[in-house]
Prior knowledge:
Blueprint: H1 2-15, H2 21-78, E1 84-85, H3 94-98, E2 105-106, H4 109-119, H5 121-132
Helix pairs in contact: 1-2, 4-5
Amino acid sequence: MIKRISLGLLIVALSTSCVSKKIYTDLENKYADLKKENRSLSDENADLLKSKNQLELDRDGLNKELAKIKSAVKAAYEIKFFVAAGHGLDYENVLPIAAIKEIHELNIGHSIISRAVFVGLPGAVKEMLALIGG
């Protein structure tokens, strides 16, 4: 901010002196560029703040959904149901589901085979076992 004010004052001082029009114009353009850059950075900061707020909302939503899943799993477990989970589980979201001790089985074969395309089947299995604590 000090640089913008100093440059702005310099431009005003130069515009009233005998300095060549070219130097004055160059400085004026540089000042305009700095103002645009500052506006751009302000916009980026606003976008980052929106993204952070959205992530917090997403996290809160995920925590609420996870609480619903845990409640349903515990209810099913209490009435002696065999509880399995799997649809949509992958390497990024399996950990909180795998941590629910009442779940007997994780149906994660599709995720493992998909990952195996990139790292091979032994590597994919090893990565998944590391995630779920197996």
